[in-house]
Amino acid sequence: MQKVATEQDQIDGRVSEPVVSGAHPEAADFPLKEARKLVRDLWQPNARIYWTDFPISAFIGWGAVAVAVMSPLGSIIHIAALIVATLALYRAVIFIHELAHFRKGTFTGFRRFWNATCGMPMMVPAYTYADVHIDHHKPQHYGTEQDGEYLPFAVNEPWKIVAFVAQAFIVPILLVFRYAMLMPLTLMIPALRDYVWERASSLVIDYTYIRPLPKKDQKAGWMLEDVFTGLYAYAAFGLWYVDVLPTMFFVVWYVVTFAIFVLNGLRTLAAHAYRNGGRERMTQQAEFLDSVDVPGNRYISPLWAPVGLRFHATHHLFPGMPYHSLEKAYFRLKDELPDNRLYLAATRKNLWAAVAQLWREAKASQKS
Predict the structure, then answer these.
(1) Is 128's pLDDT higher than 80?
(2) Distance between CA atoms of residues 134 and 337, nearest Å
């Protein structure tokens, strides 16, 4: 338990310098100490859950891809297989979020297994999210221009919300280009390698984001993940060339990857209130109120917000808490906080309610 708590302590180190909470002035009244006490027993990750949930999701996902490839185009079986493949592989891919929060040196085997069976064949190796996401939780970065996972949608033109989801059409093509075309060039041209690592190696929503270059102990790992991800692409094209893989495989991969990014785009829009137009630093309480919980239906909501991400505001209160504890933490805080009004202020009824509220606020901001 101590290893997990250490990450929380690192991220919670946000009281030593003044911060601004202009987007959520009521945040100072949030009962943070009481909330921490109520969930202090929920920090230990259960390896058995990870080693059960992810492999089953990946097995179902890739199995459904195979069925979709072999089924008649447009048939009921083909369409059903595409839906199953999308939902299962989406869940499998989202485990990259858990990988980002694992302490260095833990769950090493799981990380490699995830990369080999999901991250690399989907062209999103683990390093593309790791440090970037931890920065998203740091007080000096969250909601500021140094946060690649934040854009102030609520105070910008509404068309940017539509454009954000629509860009999913080109993401699969860009991923293949990144690892099949740029990767070998980066091995030969160090300056290009640095440029690609800074500007084309991060799973972010702000495409102006410039990622810090790897530390000395990270460089070899980043290069290996790049190379092996590229090898997956070359292997697929090679098997297609010798008539082992049909062309339909690439069609199915594109459709499933596109659908995953659409789902994740909608989930991302529902993950935060995105009201920090001034890109100011926030307290942890303000960060929580700028985030969103959507408990919804416990069977339907995990389809679009898998691996605990429907409790995204609670996750921002306790970033090191494993995904399998977040639902319990949410309902415990809801039921046991002496005054839960501010806690529930971050809750939305469902996905559409969260996105609709973001849309209304964006429209209203243009009139004021």
Answers:
(1) yes
(2) 28
Residue 293, classed as helix, strand or coil, is: strand
Query: Using DSSP, how many helices (H) and how many strands (E) does the chain show?
Result: 18, 0
The reported pLDDT for the residue numbered 332 is 97
* pLDDT band, very low/low/confident/very high, at 209 (cuts 50, 70, 90): very high
Whether the predicted pLDDT of 104 surpasses 50: yes
Asked if residues 22 and 280 have their Cβ atoms less than 8 Å apart, the reply is yes
**Which SS3 state, helix, strand or coil, does residue 226 take?**
helix
C-alpha to C-alpha distance for 12 and 318, rounded to whole angstroms: 9
Query: What pLDDT was estimated at residue 23?
Result: 57
The Cα 5–Cα 3 span in angstroms is: 6
Look at the block and give the residue holding tokens 């809801």. 334
Distance, first Cα to last Cα, the chain: 49
| Closest CA relative to residue 292, chosen from 339, 343, 331, 338 | 343
258 Ramachandran zone, left/alpha/beta (phi>0; psi -120 to 50): alpha
> Under 8 Å CB-to-CB from 318, ≥6 apart: which residues?
8, 36, 39, 42, 43, 329
- The secondary structure of 228-283 as a DSSP string is HHHHHHHHHHHHHHTTSS-HHHHHHHHHHHHHHHHHHHHHHHTTB----TT-----
Q: Which of 251, 250, 174 is nearest to 207 (CA)?
A: 174
Contacts of 7 (CB under 8 A, 6+ apart): 101, 103, 319, 320
Note the pLDDT of residue 19.
44
Q: Which of 8-12, 231-235, 278-282 has the lowest mean pLDDT?
A: 8-12
